[in-house]
């Protein structure tokens, strides 16, 4: 599991979080003193809290349902209708390459997809396809940084991955797009 590296070099910070439900399950929104540092969607609330602890192992995690209520509600509404770019401020942490990947991924509009190789080319690192895939797998911003819209160029469609399993978030967005066209 990828944890927040910079926290190992400075005093622990306080991360406040709140939980709720969204169209895809349990939702957690965590914020630093600057902005949202993580948006997670999981099957259970206990898994959300466990994953948040793994993400920020040195942080002082404070459950603040009241203080986080507005952000949780806004993120839940966004997940229900992710038609525009995510508007809330994000405190995105990662390497320079990860930051460039996530910035490029945020440009992918609702209903569209890209590939790891296209993202690599767009950030002027055409040989960094595996690094792009790694950055996408390490994004902690469900829907705000829509890495689920980045697919393999080997023919995977928005509804399936190479192993044939439904990719839940892409399938969810495809259903929203179909409803929107009606």
Structure description:
The protein has 182 residues and is α/β, with parallel strands linked by helices. The protein contains six helices and six strands. The protein has helices at 45-55, 65-80, 96-105, 116-122, 129-137, 168-181; strands at 14-22, 25-31, 36-42, 60-63, 114-115, 150-151. A four-stranded mixed sheet has the order 3-2-1-4. Strands 5-6 form a two-stranded parallel ribbon. A hairpin with a 2-residue loop joins β1 (14-22) and β2. α3 (96-105) crosses α5 (129-137) and α4 crosses α5 (129-137). The longest helix is centred in the middle third of the chain and has 16 residues, at 65-80. 31% of the residues are buried. The model is unreliable at 158-166 (pLDDT under 50).
Secondary structure elements and pairings:
Blueprint: E1 14-22, E2 25-31, E3 36-42, H1 45-55, E4 60-63, H2 65-80, H3 96-105, E5 114-115, H4 116-122, H5 129-137, E6 150-151, H6 168-181
Parallel strand pairs: 1-4, 5-6
Antiparallel strand pairs: 1-2, 2-3
Helix pairs in contact: 3-5, 4-5
Quick rundown:
With 182 residues, the protein is of the alpha/beta class.
Features:
182 residues, alpha/beta, four-stranded mixed β-sheet, two-stranded parallel ribbon, 6 strands, globular
What is the helix fraction of residues, given as a range? 25-40%
Let me know the average pLDDT.
Answer: 87
What proportion of the residues form beta strands (DSSP E)? 15-25%
Structural class: alpha/beta
Rg computed from alpha carbons, rounded to a whole number of angstroms = 16 Å
Please give the count of helices. Answer: 6
Helix-strand pattern: EEEHEHHEHHEH
User: What is the count of β-strands?
Assistant: 6
Distance between the termini: 41 Å
Q: In terms of per-residue confidence, which ranges show pLDDT below 50 for 5 or more consecutive residues?
A: 158-166
Report the biggest beta sheet as strand number plus sense, adding barrel if it closes: 4 strands, mixed
Task: Give the strand order of the largest sheet, numbering strands 1, 2, ... along the chain.
Answer: 3-2-1-4
- Form type: globular
